[in-house]
Amino acid sequence: MDNHVAVDFSVLGTMKPLIGISCCVKQFGVFGMANHAASNTYIRATDHVVGGVAVLVPANGGVADIETLVSRLDGLILTGSRSNVAPGNYDGPAHAEGTPEDHERDGVTLPLIRAAVAAGVPVLAICRGMQEMNVALGGSLHQRLQDLPDRIDHSTPMSPNPRVRTGKSHAIRVVSGSWLHRLCGAAEISVNSLHNQGMDRLAPGLVADGVAPDGTVEAVHAVSAGFAVGVQWHPEYDWERDEVSRKIFALFGEAVRARLSGAAGLSAAAD
Q: Does the annotation mark 188 as catalytic?
């Protein structure tokens, strides 16, 4: 008996793209067991704006199969996290005692970013994800912006009210002609701010597209990639009520579908 099932490939054109979402190692439950986790905010943005199927990428360090991930994923979202990129990845000084790190995540995301950019897989890097993209491509980080002279405090407001924690914190200047300028059509936008680390030396091939009043780089793109952009804030928190946040995820979704269709794709480079 022939158990082979014929597949009607004509239906594949209607299948949703697979969107990888980077996970962190977090301890949950009574016994604090290690779990691979990503916030529901990224899943919902993928479901409702990007129009893709969320695939959680575990933080399994050196055993991750980067080649398989890049060959199967249609897009990649690099998430924010409480943990910081370990300074050994960019030859920085040791973190202050108690600073959370996630070496297993670093071991996946850094090579995955390099492989995705090289393969033309669209990348949307958010907060820690933007810092990872900078480090993966050869840049470095400031570890605590609030300790630097003439910098504002970019760290998370410690308030039980989520609207305070994730609400708009400061304005950024949008670089004229950048992907962000084309998206929002404004010279300045307001963003939330929930980070300690920030860009120090930009990686070769990364270009700043948005800058905070204190000079902190808040948005970037990779010039050699079809679509690889990063934002230092968290659009996943307010895409349901903020037009720019929603457009960021929508633009990423368009880039994913353009690549799948065989089109030239959406370039993040300035005109």
A: no
